[in-house]
Amino acid sequence: MDEIDRAILEELKRNSRIPFVELGKKLNISESAVRRRVKNLQKAGIIRRFTIEVGDESISAFVLVSVDPSIPTGEVAEEIARIPNVKSIHEVTGVYDIIVTISAGSVAETNRCIDEIRRVRGIRSTNTMIVLREIP
Model-level pTM greater than 0.90? Predict the structure, then answer.
């Protein structure tokens, strides 16, 4: 991966719907070169999917999860992954073992998701932080 590939990735992170022609103009390369590079980044697994982000209609939260040491953290994470509204899961070091990102359409839906997470076998405690504002 070279500097042009990195620049393509940065532009796609900002706007995954940018036309290849426009992207090529921004990077001073041809549309076909952009298309070829994006295809190669996909084949290499660097770009796994294109997605959308929904505007202010949803509520996001981070749930810090402490796992009982007698239960494998990976098993707990896999169970959490099956819960609706869970967007990402990260196994981490420190006081907490897992950070879960959730996104829901309402406070009630967010609360239901947190309650489901807390019911997963092996969870010792949670600490939830509601996102007030995201800086792009």
Answer: no
